[in-house]
């Protein structure tokens, strides 16, 4: 065999080595996450105080704390047990308005118009989506949503600012079962 070819093969075999992992350019401590958590806890506690003050200012209304983190009271409660709450894909025809905790109106029922909503199949802010699941046809409920259950950090890019708790008065007109 040719000596230069043999030498070349030996050099190629020994010159290859496994790749080494690169060391990270910077090390993150997670402090920004901790700061964000603390900021959100502080915001939640402030909102909760304002909401509790609103609830305390209307002793004639019996507010119920939901499992989902919002409060509600019945304005018109339907006692008929034969009427059911909506299930997945049921079509709900409803009206609602949106106001701030101080009572100033953000959107009226006329502005928002009557809406048809396929339960859990269309976009709707989290609090209202969960609130509709508690209602029967012809009921009216007043909901108080903290900002994380409403439009959250971003707002609605129109009249509702970021981190704004809201009050919604919702009336379900009909529920069409699927």
UniProtKB/TrEMBL annotation:
<dbReference type="InterPro" id="IPR019869">
    <property type="entry name" value="Motility-assoc_PPIase_GldI"/>
</dbReference>
<dbReference type="Pfam" id="PF00254">
    <property type="entry name" value="FKBP_C"/>
</dbReference>
<feature type="domain" description="PPIase FKBP-type">
    <location>
        <begin position="89"/>
        <end position="176"/>
    </location>
</feature>
<keyword id="KW-0697">Rotamase</keyword>
<keyword id="KW-0413">Isomerase</keyword>
<protein>
    <recommendedName>
        <fullName>Peptidyl-prolyl cis-trans isomerase</fullName>
        <ecNumber>5.2.1.8</ecNumber>
    </recommendedName>
</protein>
<dbReference type="InterPro" id="IPR001179">
    <property type="entry name" value="PPIase_FKBP_dom"/>
</dbReference>
<dbReference type="GO" id="GO:0003755">
    <property type="term" value="F:peptidyl-prolyl cis-trans isomerase activity"/>
</dbReference>
<dbReference type="InterPro" id="IPR046357">
    <property type="entry name" value="PPIase_dom_sf"/>
</dbReference>
<comment type="similarity">
    <text>Belongs to the FKBP-type PPIase family.</text>
</comment>
């Amino acid at each position: 065999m040719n000596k230069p070819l043999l030498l070349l093969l030996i050099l190629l075999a020994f010159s290859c080595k496994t790749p080494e992992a690169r060391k990270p350019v910077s090390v993150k401590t997670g402090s920004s996450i901790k700061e964000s958590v603390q900021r959100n806890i502080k915001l939640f506690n402030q909102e909760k105080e304002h909401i509790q003050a609103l609830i305390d200012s209307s002793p004639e209304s019996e507010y119920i704390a939901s499992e989902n983190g919002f409060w509600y009271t019945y304005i018109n409660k339907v006692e008929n047990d034969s009427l059911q709450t909506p299930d997945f894909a049921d079509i709900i025809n409803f009206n609602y308005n949106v106001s701030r905790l101080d009572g100033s109106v953000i959107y009226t029922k006329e502005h928002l118009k009557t809406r048809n909503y396929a339960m859990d199949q269309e976009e709707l802010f989290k609090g209202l989506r969960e609130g509709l699941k508690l209602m029967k046809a012809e009921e009216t409920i007043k909901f108080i949503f903290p900002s994380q259950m409403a439009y959250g950090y971003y707002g609605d890019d129109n009249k509702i600012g970021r981190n704004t708790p809201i009050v919604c008065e919702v009336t379900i007109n009909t529920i069409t079962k699927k």
